[in-house]
Design a protein that fits this description.
Helix content is 32%, strand content 26%. It has 247 residues and is an alpha/beta fold. The chain folds into two domains: 121 residues, Nucleotidyltransferase, domain 5; 106 residues, Nucleotidyltransferase, domain 5 (2-Layer Sandwich), CATH 3.30.420. The strands form four sheets. Strands 1, 2, 3, 4, 5 and 8 form a six-stranded mixed sheet that branches. The chain has a five-stranded mixed sheet with strand order 11-10-9-14-15. Strands 6-7 form a two-stranded antiparallel ribbon. Strand 1 and strand 2 form a beta hairpin. The longest helix is centred in the C-terminal third of the chain and has 19 residues. The chain is globular and about 50 Å long. The structure holds beta-D-glucopyranose. The site of beta-D-glucopyranose has 16 residues, from helix 3.
Length: 247
C-alpha cells in the first residue's frame, strides 16, 4: 500500500485526507476548513498546515496540493478566481518551508483529471480523455493514454468573443439564474467547440453540479461520449495525492 496526503484548495473550502494511492481509497476522514476570506497565500498556507496537523500525518508521507491556477514548476502563474498575490508566486516553496516537508503542487483540474483516469469514470480508457470541472470557473485536464498534458486552461477559450467560463461555468448558471436547459445551450456551444478542437475519446464532467448530471448531460449533442465524474468531491484530493507519489 502506498500512502499520501491530498489537499484540494478551492475558492470556498480547503479539503484534505490521507489516501491509498494504489486503490484511490481514503484512509482517513476528509477534513474540510473554509478558505480564508480574500484567499491570500499566507492565510491559505496556515489553513493547510492545520489540516495536515489534524490528519496527524507522519513526516515521510508525500503531500500533494492542488490549486485553481496555472502551475509551472511549483510557481502559480495565474489567478482567475483567487487573490492576485498568487500570480508569479513560488507556491510550492512557500508550502514546503511552512510545512517543513516536500510537497507537490498542481492545478486543481489536472489533479481531478488524473484521479478520474486512475480511479474513476475514465479508468481503463485509452486515447485522449478531457476532464472538465464546472464550478466557479471551468477547469480542464487533457490526459493522453494516462499521461497528463498539464495546464490546458480550456475554461479560458474565447468563444463568441467571451471567456468561456464566464458564460458556461456553474457560477454563470447561478449568476444568470439559468434553468438547466438554458445553461445546457451554453454548455453545448462550449463542448462542441472543444470537441472540434481536440477530438477527445471521452469527456468527463466534474464539479459539484455533476451530481445533477441527469438534468443537463442528456441535453448535449456531441459525437464524443460524455460522462459525469465518478469521484465528485474527492477527485482533487485523490489526484494530488497520486501525483505526489509519481512525481
Ligand atoms: C482557472 C483554472 C482552474 C479552473 C477551475 C479557472 O478559472 O484558470 O486554473 O483549474 O478555474 O478551478
Amino acid at each position: 500500500m502506498t500512502t499520501a496526503v491530498g489537499i484540494d484548495i478551492g475558492g470556498t473550502g480547503i479539503k484534505g485526507a490521507v489516501v491509498d494511492t494504489d486503490t484511490g481509497e481514503l484512509l482517513s476522514d476528509r477534513i474540510k476548513l473554509p478558505t480564508p476570506e480574500g484567499g491570500e497565500p499566507d492565510a491559505i498556507v496556515a489553513t493547510v498546515l492545520s489540516i495536515i496537523a489534524q490528519l496527524g500525518v507522519a513526516p515521510g508521507v508525500p503531500v500533494g496540493v492542488c490549486f485553481p491556477a496555472i502551475v509551472i514548476k511549483g510557481t502559480t502563474m495565474s489567478a482567475a478566481n483567487v487573490s492576485h498575490k498568487w500570480i508569479g508566486l513560488a507556491a510550492e516553496d512557500l508550502f514546503e518551508k511552512a510545512l517543513g516537508r516536500p510537497i507537490h503542487f498542481v492545478n486543481d483540474a489536472d489533479a481531478a483529471g488524473v484521479a478520474e483516469v486512475r480511479y474513476g469514470a475514465a479508468k481503463g480508457v485509452t486515447g485522449l480523455v478531457l476532464m472538465t470541472t464546472l464550478g466557479t470557473g471551468i477547469g480542464s485536464a487533457l490526459i493522453y493514454n494516462g499521461v497528463l498534458i498539464p495546464n490546458s486552461e480550456l475554461g479560458h477559450l474565447e468563444i463568441d468573443g467571451k471567456d468561456a467560463e464566464k458564460r458556461a461555468s456553474y457560477a454563470a448558471k447561478e449568476r444568470g439564474n439559468l434553468s438547466f436547459s438554458r445553461w445546457a445551450r451554453r454548455l453545448q456551444r462550449y463542448y462542441s467547440h472543444v470537441e472540434m478542437l481536440f477530438s477527445p475519446d471521452l469527456i468527463i464532467v466534474g464539479g459539484g453540479v455533476s451530481k445533477s448530471y441527469t438534468e443537463f448531460i442528456p441535453l448535449l449533442e456531441l459525437r464524443t461520449p460524455i460522462l459525469p465524474a465518478a469521484l465528485r468531491n474527492n477527485a482533487g484530493i485523490l489526484g494530488s495525492a497520486a501525483l505526489a507519489v509519481t512525481q
